[in-house]
């Protein structure tokens, strides 16, 4: 387990989680903002994207009250991305997440997950900032992230190819208040 905060647990991805990811990433409600409804996943695609990838993300499953409900990944931004976003030599982490079990939506669990992950990154990875790049049209996610202390920094025009067209995204950041 990576960390626990009350009823919320975040643990690293296991081989058997591929079936959960395939279930969640074939649900049009989940895909509307994560990967795209025109891009459903089966187990083979999950294996290629989540298990065969050489990328440096730490991929995790989210559990709430003992139930596996979602996915979160975090990663340290490389110099190329930091430059693209306008950052200097800081320790910056990014996250991506979704709640795959839609009956857990709109219950404050996403806010609890994001605040818990930010706390983990600041305390255990010494993150100077935590950033995300949600699509500008994803108002529900943006409200969640703003409740967690993220601020909108700038629009990233045509940043993400989603459902056949490039979408504008917000660069949002959380900056911890150092004493």
TrEMBL record:
A Pfam family per the record: Acetyltransf_8
GO biological process, any: response to antibiotic
InterPro entries assigned to the protein according to its UniProt record, in alphabetical order: Acyl_CoA_acyltransferase, GNAT_dom
Lineage: superkingdom: Bacteria
Domain N-acetyltransferase: 8-176
Keywords: Antibiotic resistance, Transferase
GO MF annotations in UniProt: N-acyltransferase activity
Protein name, UniProt field: Acetyltransferase, GNAT family
Source species of the chain: Aneurinibacillus aneurinilyticus ATCC 12856
């Amino acid at each position: 387990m990576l960390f626990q905060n009350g009823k919320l647990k975040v643990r690293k991805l296991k081989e058997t989680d591929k079936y959960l990811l395939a279930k969640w990433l074939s649900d049009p409600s989940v895909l509307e903002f994560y990967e795209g409804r025109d891009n459903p996943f089966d187990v083979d695609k999950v294996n290629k994207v989540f298990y065969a990838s050489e990328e440096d993300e730490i991929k995790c499953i989210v559990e709430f009250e003992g139930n596996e409900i979602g996915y979160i990944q975090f990663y340290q931004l490389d110099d190329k991305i930091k430059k693209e976003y306008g950052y200097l030599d800081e320790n910056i982490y990014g996250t991506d997440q979704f709640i795959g079990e839609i009956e857990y939506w709109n219950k404050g669990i996403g806010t609890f997950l994001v605040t818990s992950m930010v706390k983990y990154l600041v305390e255990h990875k010494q993150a100077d900032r935590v950033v995300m790049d949600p699509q500008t049209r994803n108002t529900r996610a943006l409200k969640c992230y703003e409740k967690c202390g993220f601020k909108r920094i700038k629009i990233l025009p045509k940043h993400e190819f989603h459902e056949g067209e490039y979408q504008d995204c917000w660069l949002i950041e959380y900056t911890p208040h150092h004493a």
